[in-house]
Design goal:
Helix content: 40-55%
Strand order of the largest sheet: 2-6-7-10-1-11-12-13-14
Number of strands: 16
Distance between the termini: 72 Å
Shape: elongated
Oligomer: single chain
Radius of gyration: 29 Å
Number of helices: 18
């Protein structure tokens, strides 16, 4: 029997506010992450130092709604084409857990900020919409730190604004779920709503996974997998869970409705608890907060301020700059990278220096370097105009491709311009026989068999000899000049 997967995703994004959701406690000094945004808000503050009676839920403390969090949340809902609830309120979600100091979480259950939206995925040559069930605000919990023989609690994170984006069960493979998570993260980055730093917990995913016989209208038993803090864990946990559930059904066994976690070491999901229902949380309206009323004028002003979003920017990069869909996807992955590319294009004045050439350098060498460093470090070391200067030198023939890449590495390490580095290190393309003579002699002496083959008419060997000359010169030899000089020296 064939089975079909059904997957829904809940994303929990820490919003980039300076204070917590319902109190004036700061969310800690800003840290710079590799994505170019903020790191986890509480990451560099001493444990349990960002607390007050409100976020601890002490008697007599009254919460106040964070306006900036509402603004960011509504902006995300608008960008996801949601219907906005102009009158909404907060609710209490009751459950007992060590990192929840109040014994309840203030969330939105009955009337979220918005719902009935969609996010388009590019799957192959076609686009497909994933429906958004709702977008709502809530507060984060604290954090448990497990150590041998004990568990510590850091409550700095308690009360930080969270935006939850919940899909309908519209995804049908681990690959689709991965594409959705990547695209949603892009939207959050472009809107400035979240740093998108999964490693530091600023963005976390939970999945609802089920399988059912192909063609069946009855949904399968849903299993929730919680707290997935990497795209790799998201994909692998879904792959494992689909395989596990399908194996159970093939054996005639039932899939239990439960909450599971991802074991990175064992690469498997593990049972955490039986799945709660809404009744288990005993939701009721938060009595300490008034209803939240959003005016039409305020909503329209927010809509007008929405930036160019990832899908729009990808389309523009293909039409305006003639880039392939693959290049446009790479360059628009984060707004900082897209902005850098466009700035570099704006500094380009040479007729032969096309956007495609600049795109190759940005998406190739620079993005490879970003894997080890923050994007801001790259932009400080190699501003867009200096990258264009380097590419222009290579295009004009002053540098070989190999030398230009070496110079770029020096620029990234030192912050100097390409011209400064070339002047100090005497890096320039050499094409005259006087400069290349030593390298030609070395290569001819070291490769007698190849030389003999060339002299007997095997012209293809010349490419190997030219490559050897370029390598011997540490990339400075002009390949065309080297080929011509080798032909002269090796004539029978």
């Amino acid at each position: 029997m064939l089975y079909e997967p059904t997957i829904g995703i809940e994303a929990h994004a820490q919003l980039t506010t300076s204070t917590k959701m319902f109190c004036a406690c700061r969310t800690a000094p800003v840290l710079t992450g590799a994505a170019g945004g903020r790191a986890s808000p509480e990451a560099n503050a001493p444990a349990n130092s960002l607390l007050c009676p409100v976020c601890l839920g002490l008697p007599g403390a009254l919460p106040v709604i964070n306006e900036r969090a509402v603004e960011l949340g509504v902006s995300v809902a608008l960008a996801l084409h949601c219907r906005i609830n102009t009158s909404t309120r907060f609710d209490r979600k009751n459950y007992a857990y060590p990192d929840l100091p109040k014994g309840y979480q203030i969330s939105q259950y009955f009337t979220p900020l918005g719902g009935d939206g969609w996010l388009e995925l590019q799957t192959g040559d076609a686009g497909r919409r994933v429906r958004i069930q709702d977008v709502h605000l809530e507060e984060d919990t604290g954090k448990l730190i497990h150590q041998p023989g004990r568990t510590l609690i850091d409550l700095n994170r308690a009360g930080i604004p969270l935006l939850e984006v919940v899909t309908r069960p519209d995804l049908h493979s681990a690959e689709e779920a991965h594409l959705y998570a990547v695209e949603l993260r892009r939207y959050l980055l472009y809107l400035g709503a979240c740093s998108g730093d999964l490693e530091k917990g600023a963005l976390r995913f939970e999945t609802n996974v089920s399988v059912r016989p192909a063609g069946s209208l009855e949904p399968g038993t849903r299993v929730e997998v919680k707290n997935l803090n990497s795209l790799r864990a998201l994909r692998r946990s879904i792959e494992f869970e689909l395989s596990r559930q399908e194996a159970l059904l093939r054996q005639g066994l039932a899939v239990r409705r439960e909450t599971r976690g991802w074991d990175e070491t064992g690469q498997c999901t593990v049972v955490q608890r039986s799945k709660e229902s809404a009744e288990d949380y005993r939701y009721f309206p938060e009595p300490d907060l008034p209803p939240l009323e959003l005016s039409t004028q305020w909503l329209e002003a927010l809509r007008a301020q929405l930036p160019e979003l990832p899908a729009e920017r990808r389309r523009r990069f293909t039409t305006e700059y003639g880039l392939s869909s693959y290049d446009a996807d790479l360059l628009t992955d984060e707004p900082a990278i897209a902005n850098y590319f466009e700035s570099a294009v704006s500094h380009s004045r040479l007729p032969g220096l096309s956007p495609k050439t600049i795109a190759n350098w940005v998406s190739g060498d620079l993005l490879r370097y970003v894997r080890q460093a923050a994007w801001q470090e790259v932009e400080r070391a190699v501003p867009p105009d200096r990258l264009v200067e380097l590419i222009a030198m290579q295009q004009a023939g002053s540098l070989t491709q190999t030398s230009a890449k070496q110079v770029l590495q020096e620029m990234l390490a030192s912050g100097q311009s390409a011209r400064q580095i070339c002047a100090e290190k005497h890096i320039e393309r050499i094409a005259d026989e006087a400069s290349l003579g030593e390298f030609l002699a070395q290569v001819i002496a070291a490769n007698p068999e190849a030389v003999s083959q060339y002299r007997t008419g095997k012209d293809a060997v010349l490419r190997f000899l030219v490559g050897a000359v370029v390598k011997a010169s540490h990339g400075t030899a002009d390949p065309t000049a080297a080929a011509e000089l080798l032909r002269r020296r090796l004539r029978p």
